[in-house]
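Teaching assistant's notes for section 4

Start the section by putting this record on the projector. Ask students to predict, before seeing the second block, whether alcohol dehydrogenase will look compact or extended. Collect guesses on the board.
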Amino acid sequence: MSESFLIPETQKGIIYHEVNGPLIYGDISVPKPKPNEILVNVKYSGVCHSDLHIWKGDWPASPKLPLVGGHEGAGIVVAKGSLVNNFEIGDYAGIKWLNGSCLGCEYCQLGYEINCAKSVISGVTHDGTFQQYATADALQAAHIPKGTDLAKVAPILCAGVTVYRALKTADLRPGQWVAIPGAGGGLGTCAIQYAKAMGLRVLAIDGGDEKRKTCIELGAEVYIDFLKEKNVVDKVIESTEGGPHGVLNVSVSELAITQSVSYIRPLGKIVLVGMPPNAVLRVPVFDQVVKSFEIKGTSVGNRLDTREAIDFFTRGLIKMPINIVPLSQVSKVFDLMIEGKISGRYVVDTSN
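Reveal the predicted structure now:
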């Protein structure tokens, strides 16, 4: 016998009516799922740097307005559309950055669903997870095993999936070095753990003693503090005996991304994940030809990546360092991001 839930007409949420406008915490309507959608009672939502960029208008994206941001929501399915047959009421589900896609175009069929021209993005073109109830296409929503800690799994739905996909894109072998600029942030702390679980050696780059402690505890062999190190490039090459085999650029620093071109090992792979506003990567053609390294960009993962990334978490291989704050405090988390004071991942509790 399936469960049933009493669904209210209104809920608490964070909404803004213009880019970089006031973030308003208050009562908004509960959305109704379309035939292909599930309605999730969001218990927790991670706060991603992308949410900040969309709100500020940093990227060439056109969000729907008014907009509820957020795209790392974990909760319980409380209603579903008439066409949904892969979720049941009461199941645990996750709402991701990629809320929906056509599943029929060449990109979807190749597993690059995020490149679909008809993609629907949570917290950009579709109201996201900074609310107590949110909808998602059932075919793109993530299945979460019952009993999972919903607060800790929430960031896996973006941060975890994103870095896991990036590591797969880097195509490194166990025992090889991967450098992670921005290792102490939300994406970076995930990346360290996934890299270790995949058998890689991790060199973490970030600033400050608190982030050093976090990175080393999570499994980084080497930590380079860019605030103290006079020549980051030389130190990276020295520490990895010739440069890392791969680089996961999760930093939002244009300088950090540019430096990776100088310290990458010949035949290495640089994967771009972080997107500093208006950043440009300049690469000496001579160096790229002679060293024969690759530069790739990658966004969030597909449905398979999501399932695998969650599996790493549920097997206890990934332990998210999180700070839980009330939903009403999203703007304060954004302030910490702007000030560069985020260590780990902030998660909002939608119940207050």
